[in-house]
């Protein structure tokens, strides 16, 4: 099988405009369109996730594989991995995306030993490096899978067995070396099993300190090899563990402060994880910006009727408009991007369904970006927000926060005050957003 024969087209997907009904044409994503002084492609920085697109077989807890990809069966593992790389880079070309992202074991098979696994990863890294010389696509980030193998069933950095901790260090070293060699803009850590199932067998302080030490060593190594991008932690509250130590943005921020990691470690925030933590996507993005730890985004969505991580493609224009509005307010991405940590449904078995899903979601994000731009230009949300907090611009108010006036002085002044509540105008603001999306 050649990569060209897997998909039913050879011509890259192009912008056709809003009148088009072709599912393999962009209706809103015009990569060269200027949005607030920057190309749309440079704002959105789309990335294809290697694992869901090329590694997930289409199974679920009640049924097995549905996709039957040619590179998943019937050959030597490393040769199949090379075949998978051919298909992946062909899809990157067809979608004309600027970035991709991968786990180590997504791109290269695990060996019987860590050395064998590292050797396999080097082989595929060589192939990626060669392909990237003639391709547009670049690496948004790499990461190590420290959750799938049986050895990690009790965690990686937080494991009660120090040998597992050491093995995880070895695996991460190889993964960040590969990421660095390929010019990756970031390196991601997702603690898939860094948590607990029951407190009866868990020493939380010990495990928390182990995780802090692991991340501190990773930061030191990043500087040693000259990796200039940030380390990104991806918060998630549960699944597969009952409770994970990187529960949400606030929890990770406290962790970073405790172990003095805020200068080098930022966050990769995912929509579905935010919802599982009881927050909105917009909430988590705002909080990360507020604390100076925003890094990148995984875009997908969950199902409102299901309480687990379904990783569906992002299609909610309003949700993306609010997130991208916050992004534009802060100048957009630096090293991060919009990574499609999303998988097509297990009934979407045609090869072109992979392309169609990405195209539809890229269009949804593009519509969200245009709505965000219009809201910012019109000050549709920023002006009401400024008015709501305008009182804090007075001299007395600023003095309270700066320390010029103390507790007793403020209390004395309060005796002459009779503040009255003002409307929060929530419904008006919701209506304003609806006008733009």
């Amino acid at each position: 099988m050649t990569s060209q024969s897997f998909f039913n087209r050879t011509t890259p997907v192009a912008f056709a405009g809003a009148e088009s009904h072709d599912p393999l044409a962009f209706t809103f994503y015009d990569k060269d369109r200027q949005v607030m002084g920057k190309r749309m492609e440079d704002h959105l920085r789309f990335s294809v996730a290697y694992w869901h697109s090329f590694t997930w077989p289409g199974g679920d807890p009640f049924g097995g594989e549905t996709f039957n990809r040619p590179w998943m069966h019937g050959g030597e593992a490393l040769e199949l991995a090379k075949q998978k790389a051919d298909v992946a880079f062909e899809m990157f070309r067809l979608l004309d995306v600027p970035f991709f992202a991968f786990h180590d074991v997504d791109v290269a098979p695990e060996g019987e030993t860590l050395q064998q696994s590292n050797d396999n990863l080097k082989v595929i890294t060589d192939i990626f490096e060669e392909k990237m010389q003639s391709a547009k696509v670049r690496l948004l980030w790499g990461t190590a899978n420290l959750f799938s193998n049986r050895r990690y069933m009790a965690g990686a950095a937080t494991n009660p067995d120090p040998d597992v901790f050491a093995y995880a260090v070895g695996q991460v070293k190889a993964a960040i070396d590969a990421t660095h060699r390929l010019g990756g803009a970031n390196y991601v850590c997702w603690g898939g099993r860094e948590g607990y199932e029951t407190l009866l067998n868990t020493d939380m302080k010990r495990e928390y300190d182990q995780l802090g030490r692991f991340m501190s060593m990773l930061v030191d190594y990043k500087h040693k090899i000259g990796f200039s991008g940030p380390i990104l932690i991806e918060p998630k509250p549960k699944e597969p563990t009952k409770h994970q130590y990187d529960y949400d943005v606030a929890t990770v921020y406290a962790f970073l402060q405790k172990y003095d990691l805020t200068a080098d470690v930022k966050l990769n925030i995912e929509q579905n994880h935010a919802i599982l933590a009881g927050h909105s996507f917009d909430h988590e993005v705002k909080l990360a910006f507020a604390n100076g730890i925003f890094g990148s985004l995984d875009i997908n969505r969950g199902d409102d009727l299901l309480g687990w991580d379904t990783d569906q493609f992002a299609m909610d224009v309003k949700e993306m408009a609010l997130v991208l509005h916050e992004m534009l307010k802060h100048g957009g991405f630096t090293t991060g991007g919009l990574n499609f940590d999303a998988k097509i449904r297990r009934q979407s078995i045609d090869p072109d369904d992979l392309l169609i899903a990405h195209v539809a979601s890229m269009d949804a994000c593009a519509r969200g970006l245009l709505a965000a731009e219009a809201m910012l230009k019109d000050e549709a949300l920023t002006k009401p927000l400024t008015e709501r907090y305008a009182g804090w611009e007075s001299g007395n108010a600023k003095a309270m926060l700066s320390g010029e006036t103390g507790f007793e002085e403020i209390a004395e002044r309060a005796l002459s005050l009779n503040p009255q509540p003002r409307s929060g105008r929530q419904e008006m603001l919701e209506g304003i957003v609806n006008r733009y999306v």
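The chain has two domains: 3-377, 383-436. The chain is about 45% helix and 10% strand.
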